[in-house]
Structure formats: C-alpha cells, structure tokens
Amino acid sequence: MSIKVEAICQKERKNIMSNRMNKYKTVASITTELINLESILKLPKPTEAFMSDIHGEFNAFQHVVRNGSGNVKSKIRDCFQGELTNETLTHFAFLVYYPSEQLTEVTSSLSSQELHQWYLTNVQRLIRLLGYTASKYTRSKLRKAINPAFVYVTEELLYSDNRDQDKQAYYWAIIENLIELGQVDSWIKMTCATIQHLTVDHIHIVGDIYDRGPAPDKIVDVLIDRQSVDFQWGNHDILWLGGAAGSAICICNLIRICARYNNLTILEDAYGINLRHLARFAERYYQDNLAFRPKSNSSNLSVEEDEAKEITKIHQAISIIQFKLEGAVLKRRPEFNMEKRLLLDKISADRKYITLLGHNYTLSNTCFQLVDVKNPYALTDEEQAIIDKLVMAFTHSEKLQRHMKFLMSHGSMYLRYNNNLLIHGCVPTDEQGNFIGLILNGHEYVGPELFDFLEQNLRDSYSQTNRKDNLSMDLLWYMWAGPNSPLFGKQNMTTFERYFIADKATHNENPNPYYQLRHNEKFVRKLLGAFGLDPDTSHVVNGHTPVKKGTSPIMANKKMVVIDGGFSRPYQKVTGIGGYTLLDNSFGMQLVTHEPFISKVAAIRDLTDIVSTKRVVETEEKRRTVAETDMGREIQVQIKELKQRLQELKK
Ligand SMILES: O=P(O)(O)OC[C@H]1O[C@](O)(COP(=O)(O)O)[C@@H](O)[C@@H]1O
Ligand SMILES: [Mn+2]
Q: Its Gene Ontology biological processes (predicted)?
C-alpha cells in the first residue's frame, strides 16, 4: 500500500526537527537538548478538537472555538476551585471568550474607580489562568503563543510570585503601568486569545467549511490565525478549491448553492467577485420560479421581494449552465460511469416530460428556454461569455486565492493523526465491503490509493497555469458528484430531479454501502488496517452525513465516530442538536454536544456556552503523554540520533 501524501503538519514538524538537529554539535548543546526532549515526552498530550460540516456558520463556530467546546470553563473551574461564585466564574469565562465585547461593556458601565479595580482583579485572574493552561506546555511553546509585543510583561507577571513579599510591589507596578499607559485592553485581548489557543492546541476540520451558511470566509480567517489546524477536504470545499483552480463546473455549482441559500453576498462582498453580468443576463432570460426561490439563510434576514426575484433568476441561469457543462464532461469521460446523469437530452420537445429508465415523469418549474432541443448541452454565446468572465474573476480574486492556498497547504483527502483516521465522507465499497473506485487507463484506484490519486489530481489542477478541460479538472467535479467519490459517497447527485420532478422516488441518491458497513467493528478494523493504522488503538472520524435524531454518533464498538451534528442550520431539524465537537486529550476522547446557536448577541447576553452534554468515547487508564503521540514518536527518533552523536563526540 502506498500512502504518498502525508499531511502538511507532519511534514512541517519533520522540517522543524531536522533544522533543529543541525544546531547540536557540541557535547553541552546535545546534552541540553536531550534533557529538553526527554522532558517534553513526559508532558501531557495536548488537546485536539475535531469539527466538521460547519457550512459557513461562523458565529456558532467561533463561539465553540472561543470557549474550547466548554474546556475553557472547566479550566477556570479547576484553576479557581472554590474561589469564585458561579456567576463570577461565568462572567470571567465570557471575558476570556469575548474580551472586546466585555471590555466595551465594562468601560461604558463602570465608574473610573470601579474600572480600575476591575482591571486589577481581572489581569491577575488572567495571569493565573494563563499559567494554569500553559502548565501542559514548555516555556518556549508558551512564549511563541504570546503576542511578541507582550512577551516580556507577560513572562514577568507569570514567573514572579505575587505572594512573595519582595516581589509584590514589582508585580503590581507592572499591572498599574499597563493600565496607566493605556495598554491593558490590548494585553487582556491578547491574553484571552492565548488562553483560547492553549486550551485547544490543535483543530481538525473534517470537511465542509463552505456552502449553505453565510460566512465561510470568516471561518477560514480564524483558522489562518490559529495556524495549528488541518483540513480533510469535504465535497463542498472541493467546489471552492475547484473554483479557485478555474473549474467552470465547480463555479456554477457553488454559485447555484449560494443563490439557493441566499448567500451570493459571500461572492460579491467577501471575495470581490462581480456577478453583475450574470444578473443582467438572468434578468433578460428568466422569470420568477418557485423552485428557485432562495431559502432564508441563517442570519434570518428576510429578502426584499425584488431581490428575491433577482436571485431566483440567477439561480435558474446558473443551474442551466451547470447542467450543460456537466453534460459535456459526462460525454468526454465515459470512464466516470455517470452516463445516467445525462438528462437534458431526455426532455421531451414540448418540455413537459422527461424519460428516465423507460418512465415518463412530468416536469415542473421548468426553465429550459436556453436549452436547444437539438443540441441541449451547447452553451449559448452569452452563457459562454459569462462563464469565461466568472472563471477569470475566481482565478483572480486575491482573497479567494489566499484562502484556498491555506486550505491546500493545510489540507488533504484524509489524515492519519495520533492514531485516528480522519475522512470527510467514506471509503467507497461494494455491498461486501470490498473497496471500489475508479478505473482509468486500465488501472483501478481503490482504498487509500483512490484518495492519493484524487489528491494528486487536485494538486495538479490547482497548480497548473493553462487551465483546460483536462482529466484533473474533470476529476474535481467527479470528487463533488461521482458515484465512487470518497467525498460524495452516493450513487447519484439528483440536483436536476429535485428541481424539476415532483416524484420523490427520483430524488433518492443511494448512499454507498460503506454507510451501513461502518456500524460493523470488523469492517472498521479492516479500514484502519488498510490505511496503515493499528486497529486496536485507532478510531475513524467521519463527517458529511448528519447524525439523525435518536441515532448514536458512536459506532462499531467505539471505533467509528461521526461528528456531523448539524452546525448547518438547515440540517438541525434532522439532527435535533446544534453540532458536535470531538475532543481528544490526555484523559481520552469525549464527544461534546452543542445546543443550536442563536446569535452572538444572545450568547453574550444569556452567558450560554451552548454545551449540553459530554459523552465519553474512550477513557485512558493512565494519562497520555506526548510520548504517545506522532510528535512524541518523532522526538524519540531525534533522541536516538542525538545520543548517537553524543557517543561519536565522546570517542
Ligand atoms: O440540501 P440541499 O441544498 O438541497 O442539497 C442537497 C444536496 O447536497 C448533498 O447532500 C451534498 O451536500 P452535503 O455534503 O452537505 O451532504 C447532495 O447529496 C444533495 O444533492
Ligand atoms: Mn459533505
């Protein structure tokens, strides 16, 4: 089995390690480093958080990230045992989550004397909490987590014991100076961010940041700021990566979804992609159509009637272009095995029926005025011009390119990390659990090799300058909607049927047998083994399929955890909750259930964490240390090398 693509974080770690190794050439320096590394191995394993299917729900996401999925409050409770009333504890926790908002509140509501006292109390508490959250890390790691402008002040406060009589005056003088020099607010904001970062050391996003919700761009901005992050791309993320790589089909699909969920502003305002031409064109050729009306989005802004009509027309225009472009790929790629998705040529000349597998279905909500009966997949000149402009805009949007570059550099099709296998969708199989995939040029890509192959093609199409309709580009769309795509995991994407055919039987997308098999421990063990992990100690973490109300997200004797709990609002009626975060820390694995997030204003007003329950997935018999992590294993290799070097020097 060849696993070609290792995640960026692992590569980065190795680079850092080997650069560091070159520094140790003397007995003294090697000895110091050996002591340092041996003691790092003994530290508790840092906390990882796993989230998936956030689908643009920035406010819910940032709330959970800021409160460390409830962990920040637990840390405060442990740090200040018995010292704070529940009310004070909650207020202090909200200062850590939302320092800017809390500072605005206190500066406007307290008298200057009260405010001074508030600063003295809270700076001191923050220092204690920072010290407590940092106790798991080396001093050097903590230093890197502190804003450079405040390293000196923070370290002086942290390491000078304010109970020591001699140091007391010094300690308080630093705080008084921070206040007097007008720096205390900045220091508080920085320290709260550091506490948040240290509480959850690493974030895994198991796919689907994009589509349906209003602010995926802001989620990416937060993650860029965190840096210690990885992504396993989801099918929706592929549309945006594909769009940035210049895939016209991906662009159509994502604009269609933005129109459907009333989110076109993401394109125009966040990414500076001008939709004027598309809007004017849609206005000329399309009318109102109930099936293409935008859904209300999560910010619950009701759309003005004129705007709703405009979006409805754009929605139809882009859908028709999408169906035409998809038809062209289906024809040139018989190896994708998707001929049954060729639908425009099955529409009757009077546009009233469609014939699918010998059945005639009535068409409703039709908008086929630009579909030529004789040549249904041909774009009109105007449609072609619009697509060309859109491709140009997507490939030249500075912010989109920056965001997608981050998703590329920190992302992969799957990830093996500290004994867990992270995959957004599935590993396609047949009914018997044999891996299936794509046959291209006589070679069948299945299992890990299918993932590696698709990833390589994504990277190729992303980096190539002459963007053509080549195989790599076509595979991007396959990753979104192909029957054996690990990211889609279903036989048919029935977008056309959902818009135009009332008979619900045609809407069935037929999930891959994997989704039944993943309940079975034997199958999951086989999967882990195939991806190079030890089935006895590892787990699979999946996203993509919302866990239905009354169904357990923990399957296969705890070997499989599905964490799509419905951050995406339209799916909360299916899941009955507001989302999950899986935490993996030195004590084991816990699944945190979140209540639906109403709004940031409501969360701050009602001081709610949106954490309802914590379910234990796995408890460790003895607290896990860095030695038992991937990083620990690399450190052990390094220790071995350093010891060898030391022996040679001593000879
Ligand atoms: O909920 P919508 O907007 O109708 O979209 C449904 C489509 O989304 C999909 O579920 C894919 O999106 P997910 O990855 O979020 O499941 C398709 O299978 C389906 O055709
Ligand atoms: Mn998905």
A: gluconeogenesis
482 and 598 share one domain = no
Residue of minimum CA distance from atom 3 in ligand 1? 257
How far is ligand 1, taken at its centre, from the CA of residue 210, in Å?
12
End-to-end Cα separation, the chain, in angstroms? 42
Q: What residue spans of 134-215 are helical by DSSP H?
A: 139-145, 151-159, 165-180, 184-199
Distance CA 67, CA 267 (A): 29
Q: Which of 226, 195, 187 is nearest to 75 (CA)?
A: 195
Q: Which atom of ligand 1 is nearest to the CA of 53?
A: 15
Query: Which residues form the domain of 307?
Result: 216-507
Q: How far apart are CA 315 and CA 318, in angstroms?
A: 6
Residue pair 626/585 in contact by the 8 Å Cβ criterion: no
Q: How far is it, in rounded angstroms, from Cα 18 to Cα 25?
A: 13
**Alpha-carbon distance 258 to 390, whole Å?**
14
Ligand nearest to the CA of 546: 1
User: Is the CB of residue 568 below 6 angstroms from any atom belonging to ligand 1?
Assistant: no
Q: What is the pLDDT of residues 367-418, one digit of tens each?
A: 999 999 999 999 999 999 999 999 999 999 999 999 999 999 999 999 999 9
Query: Do residues 288 and 431 both lie within one domain?
Result: yes
**pTM (predicted TM-score):** 0.94
- CA–CA distance, 353 with 360 (Å, rounded to integer): 6
Does 400 share its domain with 306?
yes
ipTM above 0.90, yes or no: yes
Is residue 448, in this structure, part of any structural domain at all? Answer: yes
Same domain? For 428 and 282 the reply is: yes
Final residue in a domain of this structure, among 479, 507, 535: 507
